[in-house]
Amino acid sequence: MSLNPMSHEPPCCGVSTNIEDYFLTRRKFLNRVGMGLGALGLATMLDPRYLVAGADAQDGMSAGANPLAPRNPPLPAKAKAVIHIFAQGAPSHIDTWDPKPDLLRMDGRSIGGDGGVALGSPFKFTPMGRSGIEVSELFPGIGQHIDDMAVVRSMYTDIPAHEVATLFMNTGSLRITKPSMGSWVVYGLGTENQNLPGFISLRNGGLPSGGAANYGSSFLPGVFQGSSVNTQVATVQQMIQNIRNPYIGSGEQRRQMDFVKQLDEMRAKDLQHDQVLEARLESYEIAFKMQAAATDAFDLNKESEATRTSYGNTPQGKQMLLARRLVERGVRFVQVWHDGWDHHQDLQERITKKAKEVDQPIAALLADLKQRGLLDSTLVIWGGEFGRKPTRDRNGYDNPGRDHNARAFSVWLAGGGVKGGTVYGATDQFGAEAVTDKVHVHDLHATILRALGFDHTKLTYRFNGRDFRLTDVAGNVVQPILA
C-alpha cells in the first residue's frame, strides 16, 4: 500500500481507512511507543476510579458540553442577569448618595488632623419615595425609583488609585490579572442566548482605565471573556468590527467553520486538547452566529420613537437602551462604562454635568425593565471604584473639588434579589470613613453572586494547583440588602 496521502490506491485486504490514518508525525510515534509501556505500569499503581473521566468537569458541566449553555444556580435566586453601570473616575458619595449636614455646617473651616478645609455639598438632599430615603438633587429621575433600590453608604476599598481600584472593582484583584466579575457570572450560569456573547461590555470610546483586563477572563476559558463594544459610533458594523465578511457568504463561512472544527477534533484525538485554540474556535462560532443576532440587538431603530425619547437621544441613553435590549435577549452580564467622574476641581459644575448625562437614561432603564417584567430578574448596579474626601482639594483653588478617598464611598443596587427602599451602613459625620456595617469590595462581590444563586466560596476554578474565586479568600454576603 502506498503511504502517499495523495494516493488513491485501495488499502490491502479491503479494509477501509480514513484520511487521518495516513498521518503519523514523529511526535505521535514517540508518544505512542515511548509512553505506552509507562502508562501500563502507571495504571497498576493508580486507583481505578481515576482511570476513567468523571461525568462532570470541574465547572459542573459534562465533558464536551457547550460551556455557554444556560445552567441553574445551586442556591435559590431571583436575579438571572446583571447590568453593571460603572461610574469610572470615582464619584463623590458626599454629593450623590450620602448626605452630610454636619459637613455643610463646617464649610470653610478646618476639620480633621490634617488641617483640611471642609467642603460642604452644594446640592440639596430631599426624602423621596415611600421609604423617605434622602436623594441628591443631582438625581431627580433616579430618585423616583428609590423604593426599588438598596443604597450602600459604607463601601471601602484598598488603594485610592484609579487604575488599580478600577481593576479591583471589576476583578477582585489588586496585583495579578484575574477573571472579571462578568466572566465569573457567565462561567457559573452560562447564557440564555447562544447567538450572542454571554458578557458584553459597552464603552463610549477608548479602552477603560486598566484596559481590557477589566472585562477579560484571565485563566478562565476564553469563551467567558467580555466582548467590548464601542457604542460611540453610529452603525452595528462600526460598533462590532468585522461583523460581516465582505468576501464570502454565510453558507461558505459555515462550511469553513465545520472544516476547522473537524481538523481540531482530529488533532485532539491524537494529541491533546488545546484550551487556547478551542477558545478561539468558540469565539469564531459566536462571531458567526452574531452576524444576524447582533444586527438585530444593536439596531435601536427597531425601538419606538417614544422609547428612544424616554431614554434620551444621548450617548448614555443609547447605552442604557442597548443594555435593556441585550438583557431582554438573554445576555447574562452587561457592563455599561460611564467615565469622567474624577473631579479634583470645579466639582459643582462638572459633577452636575456627569449626573445629568445618566439621570434620565438610568431612570428610563429602571422604568422600562419594570414595565416589561424584567426588573425582578435583573440586578442593576451603579457605583465607582472609590469615594472622595470631605475637604477641598488643594488643587481646586477658587473652584474646588475633592481628592481620592479609599475609606468611604457609596453604591446602589436595584432589581432582582434586592430589598428596595433600603439604606445600609454609614460613614462618619463628615463622610470621611465608613464606620457602621462596613462593606468591602469582596463583600459586594459576594453579595452579587448570592443574588444570582451562588455561594461565593464555592464558585471556583482550579488553576496552577489552586482553587481561585472572585472573592479571593475573603468576602461576606451583605444579607440585609437581599430580599
Key features of this structure:
Alkaline Phosphatase, subunit A, single chain, disordered N terminus, 12 helices, 9-stranded mixed β-sheet, two-stranded antiparallel sheet, 483 residues
In terms of per-residue confidence, which ranges show pLDDT below 50 for 5 or more consecutive residues?
1-11, 44-60
> What's the CATH class of the largest domain, please?
Alpha Beta
Strand content: 15-25%
Considering DSSP H and I runs of 4 or more, what fraction of the residues is helical?
25-40%
Number of E-state strands: 19
| Overall outline | globular
Terminal residue distance: 73 Å
In the CATH hierarchy, the third-tier topology of the largest domain is known as: Alkaline Phosphatase, subunit A
Largest sheet: 9 strands, mixed
Q: Based on the coordinates given, report the CATH architecture of the largest domain.
A: 3-Layer(aba) Sandwich
